[in-house]
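Study this one:
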Amino acid sequence: MPDELAGLAATVLAGMVRRREASAREVVEAHLARIDAVNGELNAIVTLRAEEALAEADRIDRGDTSNLPLAGVPFTVKDLIATGGVRTTAGTPALADWVPKLDATAVARLRAAGAILLGKTNCPEWGMFTYTRNSLFGETRNPAGPVTVGGSSGGEAAAIASGCSALGLGTDFGGSVRWPAHCTGILALRPTAGRVPRTGQLPTPSLDEPLIPNQITLQGRVQVIGPLARSVDDLEQVLTVIAGADGLDPFAVPAPLGTNGDVPAVAVWDGPATPAVRDDVVATVREAAGRLEKAGVRMTEQEPSMLERAVTLYSELRDTDRLQDLRRLLRGREDQVGQDVRDAVAAAEEADRRDPNPDRDLLWEERDRLRAEALAFLDEVPVLIMAVATVPPYPLDQPVFVAGREQTQWDVLAPSRLISLLGFPAASVPFGSSAEGLPIGVQVVGRPFREDQVLATARLLMEVRQ
C-alpha cells in the first residue's frame, strides 16, 4: 500500500488518515519516496522539507483528526508564494536566501486544515514568463514528454502530475495555473478575483511582511492564488479551505461559496480569432461540448464576441504597468537577476522614458465596460467552455505556428489571459490529446463567485471524457 499512496487523490488520502487506514507518516513517506525517484529528472521541487514534514505527520497521527479536512495530505507550493520559515526565492538569485517569517494566508489555511507542506516548486524568475526555468535552479521538465511544462506554475504542475505531491498552490496572472495544468494533463482552478486572499504572493511593492498585493497595478489586481490537483473533489476541498477575506488583502471579500453544484446552460467558443487557436485544440473543445450535450446539458452556439477585445486590452494594460512592483524590489539588486528579467526591466524603463505618464484610467474604464458585457452574456449562459491556450504543449526550442502565423509565448496564452482580465473563475480540465499524444485541456469559465458551477461542469467533463 505505501507505494500506492503517492497516486491517490488528496481527499481520499485525508479520509484514510482520519479513519486510521493509513498514517500521515506513511502518506508523507510515500511521497518522499516518489520525489526521490523522479524529481532528479524533473527538477520540479527545489526546496524540500522532508524531516519537518515527517515530524508534522507524527503530530497529526498523535492527535484528533476528525476536524481536519486535509489531514496528512502532502502539498507543495509555488516558489512565488511565501512560506514561513521556508526559503522562498521567486526563482531569482536576488532572493536566493530569503526566508519569510509568515505563511501566505492560503498556505496557513491549508496547514491549519491538516495538510503537510513538503516543499517549494520551481517557477520562472519572478513568475514573469510562460515557461519554467530560471538562473537559480534551471529548467523543470514535463512528465508528459519533451515539451514545455508551462509556466509560471510549471514546477507545481510537474510535481502533482508525477505523484510527488497530492495537491498544490500556484499563482495565476495570465494563465499561470491553467496553462501548466493544460501542459501536464492535470486540473487547476483560477478562483474569482477576491475569492482567495492574495496576501503572501510575489511580487509586491516591498518585502515587508505581510506581503500585501498592490491595489493600483494590473498584476496586483488580477493575479490570484489557486489550487492544482488531480481531481475535481480536491480542487473543491482546497477552495473551501482557502477562501474568505483575511483582513489584509484589500480585494478579498467574504462571499459565500455556492453549493447547488448544477451544470447550467453552457456556451462553446472556438475563439479568439486573433491569435488563432490550433485545429486540434478547437476539436477537443468541440468534443467536450458534444459530450456535455449527450449528458443532457443544454448547449448554445451564442458567441461572446466581446472577448476578442479583451485579448489586446490585457496587453495594453500590462504595458502600462511597466513592472512597477518588481522594479521597486530590485533597486540595489539589479545585477542579481537573469538575462530575461534584465531585458524585461530594460524594456519597461525605456517605455517610461518614451511615455512617463501613460493613461491607464481610460483602459480600466474600457475593461469595466467589457466586463459588464461579458457578465450580461453569462447571465444568459452561465458557463462558457473554450481553449486554455492556442496550442498543445510544444518544444521550447521550436517556433509555434497556427494558421501560418508565428505566435509568441504571450499569443499562446491569449485564451487564458483574457479571462484573467475579467476576474472570472476558470478551471483547466484535461480532456483530449494532440496528434503528438500530448495533453490538451478545456477551459471552463463561470460567473464571478460561481466556482460551484465551474467545478460541477469540470466534474461532468471528467466523467464523460472516457
User: Anything to note?
Assistant: The first helix runs from residue 2 to 5. The longest strand covers residues 426-433. The chain has a mean pLDDT of 96. DSSP finds 17 helices and 15 strands in the chain.
